[in-house]
Specification:
single chain; 7 strands; Alpha-D-Glucose-1,6-Bisphosphate, Chain A, domain 4; alpha+beta; seven-stranded antiparallel β-sheet; globular; about 40% strand
Length: about 150
């Protein structure tokens, strides 16, 4: 995990991962609905995308289907897009949080920083037991997805 911003340290999760794929492939995996549905969500989850309008103010609605049959509706809005280096997304229903995904490329690999800042420290404490491993698993699925597309 990366260093936290002092003003949000008590309510954020930060995960870093380097992927053996160029930044453009990682960017496409994050911004194309047909790709993100293949890797988004923790291990055992699948995702159905209902809307994905990747632009500032655009909506991203999807359902994560848990391995136990539970469906998790998600409603998000894109806040900032700087191709190919930054995506900022607000999760607009409980739990409330902002995702900032940043991408830097070096030697054909992409370093990602995935930051979730929750509305309160209490929200973070409530979701942390599943949010941290879930986010790590999701980024692992992303890594496998983009690395397989390199071949």
């Amino acid at each position: 995990m990366a260093t936290s911003d002092a003003s949000t340290a008590d309510r954020e999760i930060v995960i870093e991962r380097t992927v053996n794929a160029p930044r453009e492939l990682v960017w496409q995996a994050w911004t194309e609905a047909d790709q993100i549905r293949q890797w988004w969500g923790p291990n055992g989850f699948t995702t159905t995308i209902h809307a994905m309008d990747v632009r500032v103010g655009g909506v991203w609605r999807f359902i994560m289907h848990g391995p136990d049959g539970t469906n998790w509706d998600n409603h998000n809005q894109f806040v900032e897009i700087r191709k190919p280096e930054l995506i900022v997304i607000d999760h607009l229903e409980e739990p409330l949080f902002r995702v900032t995904a940043s991408f830097t490329e070096k030697d054909g690999k992409t370093h990602m920083t995935f930051r979730q800042v929750f509305d309160t420290a209490e929200t973070l404490e409530r979701v942390k037991p599943y949010a941290v491993p879930g986010s790590e698993q999701t980024l692992g699925k992303l890594a496998r997805h983009v690395e397989s597309r390199r071949r």
